Every structure is written in structure tokens, then in C-alpha cells.
Hints:
This protein is an all-alpha fold. It is built from 14 helices and no strands. The chain has helices at 11-29, 35-56, 66-81, 83-93, 96-103, 106-117, 123-141, 154-181, 185-194, 197-206, 216-243, 246-253, 256-268, 274-291.
Amino acid sequence: MGNQPRFVRWLPLAAGLIWGTAFPAIEIGLRTFTALDLAFWRGLIGALSLGGWLAARGALERRFSLGTWARLFVLALAGSGLFWPMQTLAVNLSTPVNVAFLISTYPAMLAASAFVLGEEVRRRDVVSLGLALAGAYLIISRGRILDLFASETLPGDGLALLAAVSFGAYLLLGRRWRPKMGISTQTLTFYTFALAVPVLLVFSIVDQPALATPTLATAGAVLWLGLMATTGAFLAVNRGVRAGAIAQSSVHLLVIPLVSALLSWLLFGTTLTMPQWVGGALVLAGIAISSG
């Protein structure tokens, strides 16, 4: 890890910035597609784009042991095949705000896993994570107290928390298993989508049909989700988490709600409340402290 280029430590932040754009893109895409349709197209475009690039370079690996295939399938389910549908179902059973915050807790789970990995966790990492998580709460809740795990939202909130655990497990297990499997970060990322596509297709088929004919805006949103918020962001986070400290990487990922809120303000005219501005400042302060 010590021989990695200096920019690699910033790749989780780059992934967070890109994933922050995914939520406004999803909002645009939902004008035509269902949420499960979007999940399927993200996986398919991600698999085709990354698979085509790897094939063109002669780097598309296909021969693995049974154990490696099993690990890859587990990672595909945890990172996309079940993670995206669980998010969608959680929103239907709870509220978008509750689900958005509970999903955003996976960086804290990652940071806690640093102890399991035997990594050094600095005091500044704990402080920065606390600041950034508090900031994410203020941004998502708009300064209101969220009624988490109330009787009417309990099933959805529980599923959202399970989705957060799923994605945290994907990042953690991907880091631990990749050297054992002897594959590249690009190969790991490709199979995250390729093996999930059949699962996502089933969810898409059983879901309600698309809402309308795609427009240029909704088609562009789907392409952005597939090429950037899927292929680009997953490549960045897998490489960055592999090379850097888990605790620092997890703080960087909490930039997601800040970017999402700012883009919603710019694109859709959403009002930003004072607590959200304070939350944004806390997120940036947490990232700055962790990176110092």
C-alpha cells in the first residue's frame, strides 16, 4: 500500500462525489422508469461498459475456481443484486428520508470494521466520522428529528439498515477476498454487475412496467447512472478502499448526501435549510480532519 500513487487515497472521495450525483439522476430517471428498472439498467450498462473495456485489453478473466465463483456471486448480491432492490423496497415500506439516512450509516460500519482488520484507528478518525455522520443527518433530515423505527416504518427501516450492512459487507469482503481470489480490482467490479444482472432482471420483470416512453433527459440519466454512478464510482471505491485505510475512506463517502442536496438545489430548486448548510459544513470539516 505504501507504493500506491498519492491520488489513490482520494478515490473513495471521488466515488462519494459521483454517488452524490446518482440521486438527482435517479429522480430524473423515475419520470420514465421504475426504481427496479433503473437498478437493472445500471447493472447491465456497468457490466457491458466495463466488460467491453476489459475484453478490448485482453484482460477479461473467466476461469476461476468454484470457491472464487461463489465469493464473486456473494459480492455481486451484496453490492448490487440485492442491495439496490432492498433500497427500493425499503422506501416503499418506510419514508425516503428515513431510508436515505439509514443507508448512509454504512461508512460508520466500515469504520468500526477497521478494528476487526487490526488497522490503526486514530482519534481524529473517530472525531471526523462523528462530525460527518452528524452532518449527513442534518442534511438528510433538513434539521428535523427523524422518527426512525417507529411502528409504521419499522419494516422499511429494518430493511434499509440491512441494505447498509449489505453494502458495507461488500466493500469489506471485497477488500479481504480479492487477494485470496487473485483477481484485479477491475475484474472484481465487473463481476459485481455481471453476476447481478440476472437477479436484477427478475426484479425488474416482476415489477410494474415502465411509466412512459424514455425522453432524452431520462435516457441520459440512465446512461449517467450506468457509466458513472456504477462503473466509475465502483471502480474508484474498490481501488481506494483496497489501497487506503478503511476509517479514512469511510469518512470520505459521507460526502454523498451533501452533493445530492446541492445538486437538487441547483437542478430542481429545492430549498436548502440552515441546518442543511450547517450539516454540509460538518461533513466538510470531518473530511478535512480525517485527511490531515
